[in-house]
Amino acid sequence: MILITYSFINIIVFRLIYPGNWCGDELWMLPNVTGYYIVSAQHWLTACFYIASFMLFPSPIGVYILFQAVILYILMYVLRIFSDRLNNKKYVWGILLSLCTGNVLLYNFYPLRCSIYGWFLILLFVSVFMDEERAVYKIITSSVLICSLRSEGMIWLFVIGGIMLIRKSKINQIRIMAIIVALSGIIIKYQNRSFSGAYGDYNLMTAVLDPMKELAQKEYHMAGRESELLEDMDDTIDVDVLLHNSGSGMGVFFAHYEELFRNDKPAIAPDFIKAYLRLIVKYPLVFLNERKTTFIHTMKQTSLILCNNTQSAFADDEKEPYVYVKHFNGFHVKNSNLRTNILDCLSLKNCNPFVRQICTGLFLPACFVWIGICSMGKKRKWDELIFLIGIWLYAAVVILTMPGMEFMYFYPVYLFGMFYGNWMLLRHLDKKYLCTGEKK
Length: 440
What we know:
The chain has helices spanning about 1-15, 25-35, 45-55, 60-85, 95-100, 100-105, 115-130, 135-150, 155-165, 170-200, 200-225, 230-235, 240-245, 250-255, 255-260, 270-280, 285-300, 305-315, 335-345, 355-360, 365-380, 380-400, 410-430, 430-435. It is an all-alpha fold.
């Protein structure tokens, strides 16, 4: 009944915001995947997911059909485990508290890696810490995907290894870890090779360019243009273009792409990264302040960023890349005013900015994870403690490498944090569970 209710809620939301939260990158992928071309811009597994969707249903809407099937499968598994562990079965309905927030309903219809990533985090947590049977295929699948779908996900290899070390893993568990490492390595290597061949060092450049501009300006002010560090950077990019154009590093990247790079596509020389790291060591406060500013601005906008992007993508039939995909069956906005109003409502656009930041940002999820860390430390449950610390480490890596203001990078942290807080609440309400802490 809960699955039916959640499906019904998602169908209503999808109907109101039809055809979903498509933005630039997702629209660019569609013409290629319809020809079974594995686009590596997002991730080759994402492209395979899109291709499978089109094979099932010859329209971009097929992506949502398959995505919702994955969500419902994970939710069905989570509900079964909740039902086994909670004494009062009515409390199982409480899971909807964390899955019906505006952010979750918005990102359920954002067909990108970040949306599904949070669900696999939940799948891994439940299969490792709540399911006494610990289905191996669920652990391996969720582990491999969270380690390889995003670059910052490699931090989970260390977290999962730490959990197995704490649990004094036996031979079969060591084999599971070896499988996870091997599959993740293969996926990451193939993605990096295919992406690099098509786009050069695009991802690495976007991860460093915003702080790089601040650091380069500081070095220019302190040492002048003849600085050795600036000269080391000059082999990769035209430092003068970066220094003397207004806007952020990513702003210069998009506005002056051809002038900025020495090659047709980004190709980073070894001295460039060395210079970047030396500048961070030389001016650590400049680097940290830029990262802090970007993070704060992102939290002020949260899901408004997604809503603005998706509204802009469908605002003009002749605008790229929508012009290339508007021919797909049923792929157009049915009621623009209604869609805009619903998106504004889900993102709390018209609410007080402080209230919006609290309700849609990372404040509540971070608090829930922090409470869990304190609780697990007090109970000496070191394996779960390591997992929760992994959530913080993942967020820290995102903060240090995020290319501009994009809340989607933090959405997996948001979804898991809300889910974990929901689970703590249900455990507290179910007194018998709280007393035993064991499956009944």
